[in-house]
Amino acid sequence: MRAYYHKDFKKSYKKLPKKLQAQADEKILLFLEDPYNQLLNNHALTGKYMGYRSIKISGDWRAIYQLEISDLAYFVKIGTHSNLYK
Questions:
Q1: Model-level pTM greater than 0.85?
Q2: What is the mean pLDDT of residues 30-52?
Q3: Which of these, 63, 57, 58, 53, lies nearest to 12 by C-alpha position?
């Protein structure tokens, strides 16, 4: 699996504390190796994010992505569950 990142994702990522950035890096690397690893809680979204999927970064933090082709993920947002899904 390969990944690329939307400017909104990059902007939000840069504002995260270093510890959370490290957790995000770890989970995205895990995602690239095994997108459906149970630790990621990878699932399809509905509503305004129909067609997108989410993975768990830590606790309440999620990363939203869209599968472009079978081996290319486009990460569009990262944030807390309540912030992303309001």
A1: yes
A2: 96
A3: 63
